[in-house]
Amino acid sequence: MIVQACINGARPRDFHPRLPLDAQAMASDAAACVAAGAAELHIHPRDDGRESLAAVDATVLAVRQACPGTLIGVSTGAWIENDVERTRAVIAGWRELPDYASVNLSEADAPAVMELLRQRGVGIEAGLATVADAERFVGLAGHSQVLRILIEIDIQDLAAALDEAHGIAAVLERGGARRPILLHGADATVWPFVELAHRKRWSTRVGLEDGKTLADGMIAQDNAAIVAAAVAIFRAAPAD
Fold it and tell me: What is the top-level taxon of the source organism (predicted)?
């Protein structure tokens, strides 16, 4: 069970005044999150404020220097380059490899991206947002070769979000996909899902990519404050 820090994502510049948008800001922010208890980092490198897979080299290097020994992951979201061939070409050209990368199973090219990451020696976080994603994932020949599975729910109605998460978990169980699970929500469901992950003894993630408030609804000062709050939950004894 770990708490991963997701420090920026695709959030716009005005989402939060402490949103890190360049390599040095991400490195500084990441170090603060690790000091607050984050075990790993998930970042969306940017070039002049725009998400960019080509910015992975410089960003991963900066973050690795600031957080030696901490595993660093990046997104491979199809929207970042908005071109299948360019996405593959940029990943194939990475020189400063992340420790892992997330792949969204809702995206058509996900199996090819996963295979490319395997060839490059980069761990895979398989992102499942729906039951359909989970069914696709367990049908892949190499589904047992991922680092972990992300159950990542965007649904804002909590009851519906919980139903989807439990449905995904059931598909994984039936399909024999027994990889570590990281569960996270978004915005309204962040903290209920942190609590659920804690009870399930799964990992979770928090940070400005997923939401800017603390469990009491107050806007957090920064990513480190969000991480510290989640770590406090995870350090408590799980409820039966």
Answer: Bacteria
